[in-house]
Amino acid sequence: MTQAPTPTAETVRRLVRSLLHDGDGPEVTPVAEGGEHSTWWVGTRHVLRLAPDRDASARQRRELRLRALVRSRVGMAVPTSVAHGEWAAGLGYTLDTRLPGTTGEELGVSALGEADLAGLLTGLREVPVRQAEALGVPRVAARSLEALRTAASRAAGRLAEDDEFDPARLAQLTAPAARQLGAQPGAAVLVHHDLGGEHLVVSADGRVRGVLGWNDAVIGDPAEDIAALAVAVGAPAAVRAATLAGYGARPCLRGLWLARCDTLVGLAAGVEGRDRTPLPILRARLRRAWEAIMLERVTELPDEETP
Description:
Blueprint: H1 9-20, E1 28-30, E2 38-42, E3 46-50, H2 54-70, E4 81-88, E5 91-97, E6 102-103, H3 111-126, H4 129-134, H5 145-161, H6 175-180, E7 189-191, E8 200-202, E9 208-211, E10 218-220, H7 223-233, H8 235-244, H9 249-271, H10 279-289
Antiparallel strand pairs: 1-2, 2-3, 3-5, 4-5, 6-8, 7-10, 8-9
Helix pairs in contact: 3-8, 5-9, 7-8, 7-9, 7-10, 8-9, 9-10
């Protein structure tokens, strides 16, 4: 297999000059949190993402089509590609507009920001599934909360050894409750699937002004986006946003416990050196996911709930 080229600052500068036709071109600076793409700030107005392989290139092309589909529905800004193509043989790039604001990792979300998130969840649910699938968005089966609970229980035991977590807190999620909070048949919607704080663009007043990172979108369990928001902005804010979006107790509680189990597993992996994410970040994610919510007082869920 041919080794994919490694993009350099000079590679990026040459590409940017050819795209913007602006003399020497604006300053280019690598973005540390670039994920699977080599991501660069281009001046103050653009961001360039270089796909590292053919699979990522295919998903990048799908992302461009998906962003066009959701832009009018989600009630907030979605990046626009001002140029796209190949930066090396078979490897794609997109030069996107840079959305003003900072990430949700740095700023909290206000009550109006929660309403923004509700609009996002509502818009995703209203995207016709057939249209998303026609763009190549894959359908993904819902995760087993029972299996995740088992993994989280092991992680909680490991974290207790270092006084990182009290395993008794996980006892709230009993085996019967995990089964009751299984994903409901026919509830699949378009799911962003990566609503971490780094993908939420937040203004100084706590409003959510934009959403990045659409390349991992799937057709699947809406509780996954609720879970991601619980980790990013805190469980109470996430559940309030989901409730405003019309989700009932079952998907909200399912999302809450997905988040809580995921953050336990993630922190345990960090403590053991299997996750390179800094421990303070993993601890902050766990703390946000485990914030108490009023909905936890619900002891019985109806057999049928609006998804």
